[in-house]
């Protein structure tokens, strides 16, 4: 006789297993498809950034208006004219081509009295203080061309050190604190930065053109991984079913 109490669970188990397999397969395929969508988005973003960098520079007023309207200003080429306030420069800890040093953020006072913080470029560690690079302290009216960079909404990560305002060492670009620490009213500060281009400065410092566009694009690899796992799952299940089917039931 057949033991009904024990036979029922054995009949339900393959159904339950099949449901789990289908759920796992759906998840893997969904993850693969999501990575393909991310791939298309990332490729479009990279192409857009490249186009912005290659475009002719536009007046600062145009980018400022775009920012005020909530537009995407990141990496748009812009030109601005004003006078550098050299005694209020801020120093952002950075590395450039394997060398440790600082990016020099100097307020540029515009004709209308507003302030634009310009990343003039990189100086080695030993050239942090202005007196070590006096020839590069530009005076008089200057025109700078560079890339607009958006203001950070907050500290990027908990692993990033806190800014040491007293020593004028910034580990993340806090525009408001940069302005306040040198006595500038945040209301008069344009709410984004400009990274200066590679136009040489006197005596070679700061070194401009330091904007780094590093957008990892591993989505295709991830998509292959998820789709590959889905294919492996199908193969494993198919082999398992065929092996069970090949077995001769014992009498």
Automatic annotation (TrEMBL):
Predominant localisation class: membrane
PROSITE patterns: SURF1
Membrane association type: Multi-pass membrane protein
Alphabetized UniProt keyword annotations: Cell membrane, Membrane, Transmembrane, Transmembrane helix
Subcellular location: Cell membrane; Membrane
Membrane-crossing segments per the record: 12-34, 224-242
A Pfam family that the UniProt record links to this protein: SURF1
Signal peptide region: none
Superkingdom as given in the UniProt entry: Bacteria
Entry's family note: Belongs to the SURF1 family.
The protein's name: SURF1-like protein
Native source organism of the sequence: Rhizobium changzhiense
């Amino acid at each position: 006789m057949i033991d009904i109490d024990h036979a029922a669970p054995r009949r339900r188990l393959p159904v339950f297993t099949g449901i789990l397999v289908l759920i796992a397969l759906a998840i893997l395929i969904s993850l693969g498809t999501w990575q393909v969508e991310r791939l298309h988005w990332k490729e479009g973003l990279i192409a857009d950034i490249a186009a912005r960098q290659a475009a002719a520079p536009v007046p600062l007023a145009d980018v400022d208006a775009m920012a005020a309207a909530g537009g995407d200003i990141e990496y748009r080429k812009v030109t601005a004219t004003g006078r550098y306030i050299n005694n209020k420069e801020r120093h952002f800890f950075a590395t450039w081509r394997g060398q440790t040093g600082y990016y020099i953020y100097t307020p540029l006072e515009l004709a209308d009295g507003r302030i634009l913080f310009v990343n003039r470029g990189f100086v080695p560690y030993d050239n942090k203080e202005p007196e070590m690079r006096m020839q590069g302290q530009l005076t008089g009216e200057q025109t700078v061309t560079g890339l607009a960079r958006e203001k950070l909404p907050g500290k990027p990560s908990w692993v990033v050190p806190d800014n040491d305002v007293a020593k004028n060492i910034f580990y993340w670009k806090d525009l408001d604190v940069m302005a306040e620490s040198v006595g500038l009213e945040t209301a008069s500060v344009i709410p984004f930065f400009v990274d200066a281009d590679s136009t040489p400065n006197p005596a070679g410092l700061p070194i401009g053109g330091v904007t780094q566009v590093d957008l990892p694009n591993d989505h295709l690899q991830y998509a292959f991984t998820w789709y590959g796992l889905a294919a492996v799952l199908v193969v494993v299940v198919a082999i398992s079913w065929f092996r069970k089917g090949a077995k001769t039931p014992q009498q």
